[in-house]
Amino acid sequence: MRDHVIAVDVGTASVRAAVFDAAGAMLARASSPLRLKRPAPRRGEYSSEDIWQATAEAVKAARAAADIATERIAGLAFGATCSLVLLDRDGRPLTLSEDETGTFDTIAWFDHRAAQEAAELSGFDHEAVLHSGGSVSPEMQVPKLAWLKRNRPDLWERAGGIFDLADYLTFRATGSDRRSLTTLSAKWFYRGDHVLPWPLGLLEQADLTDLRDKAGIPEIILVPGDAAGRLTATAASDLGLDGEVVVAAGLIDAYAGALGALPPPDLKTDGELALIGGTSSCIVGYESRPVFAPSLWGPYFSALYPARWLFEAGQSATGGLLNHLLEVHSAGGTATEEQHGRVIARIEEMLQKRGPGFADGLDILPDFHGSRSPFADASMTGMVAGLTLDGSFDGLCRLYWRASVAIALSLRQILALLSENGIAATNLHLAGGHRRNPLLTRLYADATGLPVMVSPTEDVVLLGSAIHAATAARLAPDLGAAARAMQAMPVEIAPDPNLADYYARQYRRLEILQACREALKQVSG
pTM for the complete prediction? Predict the structure, then answer.
């Protein structure tokens, strides 16, 4: 009996895979690291072959740990970052760069090499720009493709298969090049609610009329819950599975997190938002009507549930910022989970003794990799005020704590923007790696004044992909039924009302530092 599914989450630094049963219980999970090249501070590249091999390793390890026979795996689903995979007409990698470690053919999701092209696209009077929050991000695929055509015409000439990473993984697994409505809507300006879904006028202005041909995108698009096909013999061998496993359409990792965290449409109430926190953070919701706001990506029609409009706000560096602080501080080290745990344990001791003000005097703007929301400025930088010569471990802990506070206060600022535009949040469903960080989990409640809902499922992003896999494999009739069967009742973390005034003052300090940053920009030289 095929009554289990495998979910895969390809993140920034690793691939995670897990085995779930039809009731949503995670039986085992495994991970495999990714090789990431950083040729410049705001650039990143992967090898698509490395990603596939890491995926295969994680899938085989998870199934072995779960001790589940291949014959019991019904479905497989991939969630992935929106990195961009470049292939030629024959499906071979197009080499962006190479070094002693190998070749790289995939532009990382966070890569900002297309900042100029994104700014040019933002200047066009087109509804695609409106559905991008009024400002196109260099993290989207169209500006990256414009950069590729302009700066690497040799690769553009040979291109014949350019994929969002999630779609590449389904292509690699099934041999089908059909793309996902989710990836195309969010990153390629595709409009699922239009008879003519491609923005032909904008593509003509951007000199990208050959985009579909170079990317090899077919007419038929997969919607969430669809099956892309079954595993090919080669993919089945790589993954340690068999050719009867059904593969779901590709899904963006943040949207997989929203699928795992948010109630389905018949159970969801107004104001419920998913907060997916990892290297970056995404605030994802869906409504029955389209909602627009500055710096809000979307709304995207049927990008998660049918006839619902999905929207997304985001913070470009959250977990990535905390990793960075650990690695650049003299008392830090490699940003392992153990190192984070050591710092967090000491911060909790400090909180017990002195409360949240133990590091007051340090103020941080967390926009070290630009701002998605609320400023939509990829060139924005962070700030730290109040530094001393303290290089001790406790000094690192104070910096880590105040960065965590800044991340939570920036989330509060995003929620204020949403509220001003008709999206008033009532609670936050937490997913992603931040769920395992007790400091952030508590801060998100206390700093925003909203209850934070924490699922007992250890990895909610993987749960979302498991829900997707179960639907594609027809273990459930639709996404909503799969979500109702597989989601567990979350635990509510209520904000501490005694800290409301304290975080209101900290929020004011954040705004003052932001004003200082803007004032500095006005002074040339």
Answer: 0.95
